From TrEMBL:
Keywords: Transcription, Transcription regulation. The keyword Zinc does not apply. Residues 176-237 form the ANTAR domain. This is ANTAR domain-containing protein. One of its GO terms (molecular function) is RNA binding. InterPro entries: ANTAR (IPR005561), GAF (IPR003018), GAF-like_dom_sf (IPR029016), GAF_ANTAR (IPR012074), WH-like_DNA-bd_sf (IPR036388). PROSITE patterns: ANTAR. It comes from Micromonospora radicis. It holds the Pfam family GAF_2. Transmembrane segments: none annotated.
Length: 246
């Protein structure tokens, strides 16, 4: 970490501000099951919550390949996207597994391709902290300052806590995303099953509801009756197929 020119510790972020950020992140990401949406929420909330941070970005890698990128300002997204080059603070943080940064990019020589582009966009300081999401995805959260010597030791501590907390939240999002995809696959298989598909069609006709809701009705009936889903479907199809007596 290279923030030797930071202001005194008395000007750093407080514990309350950091705690408020982590609470807001938890509230914003707790119910999401889409990874890209979660990244977008993370950078938006972080940017709005941290004094002295002009922009926030996130770089994500899956098995060494780009897995996602988010920026609080769309015009800054290229600074976080590894497709535009691997010589960046984010990639340094990911490779080294430690926080990196610079309080004044005018005096920074570590990222000769990235730094001029960042300065053209108005970036004067940066902190990148590595984020471990799960065994497939790693990343870095990137804090950008529009003025030199704005990022302090308080921002370093906040970035460290933010990276740890974000990793846990994003891992939960990916787990929910996987579970949702698996549930969708199971539902598709059930709807493709002859008798269950027929039963779903009956319920859709009777209730005027979509297939997903009709399948939920069928599941609820199976749970209430404590019998297999297929048996409920067979009973329903048999009932509606039975000829009416005159």
């Amino acid at each position: 970490m290279n923030l030797e020119t930071s202001p005194p510790v008395t000007e750093t972020l407080g514990v309350l501000e950091t705690a408020a950020l982590l609470r807001e992140l938890t509230a914003g990401l707790i119910a999401l099951d889409d990874f890209d949406q979660a990244l977008a929420a993370l950078v938006r909330i972080t940017r709005a919550a941290l004094a002295g941070v002009s922009w926030c970005g996130f770089t994500a890698l899956r098995a060494g390949e780009p897995a996602g990128v988010a920026a609080s300002d769309a015009s800054m997204s290229g600074l976080d996207d590894v497709r535009y080059g691997a010589d960046t603070p984010a990639m340094d943080a990911i490779r080294r597994r430690e926080m990196v940064g610079a309080a004044d990019l005018a005096a920074e020589a570590r990222w000769p391709d990235w730094t001029p582009r960042a300065r053209e966009l108005g970036v004067r300081g940066v902190i990148s902290a590595p984020v471990d999401v799960d065994d497939q995805v790693v990343g870095a959260v990137n804090l950008y300052a529009g003025e030199s010597d704005t990022l302090t030791t308080g921002h370093q501590l906040t970035a460290m806590l933010l990276a740890e907390h974000a990793g846990l939240l994003l891992a939960a999002v990916r787990d929910r995303q996987r579970r949702a995809a698996q549930a969708d696959a199971r539902d598709a298989a059930l709807l493709g099953d002859g008798v269950i598909g027929q039963a779903v069609g009956v319920i859709m006709t009777q209730r005027g509801c979509p297939a997903e809701d009709a399948l939920d009705v069928l599941r609820s009936a199976a749970s209430s009756l404590a019998i297999p889903l297929r048996e409920v479907a067979e009973r329903l199809v048999s009932t509606v197929s039975r000829p009416r007596e005159n």
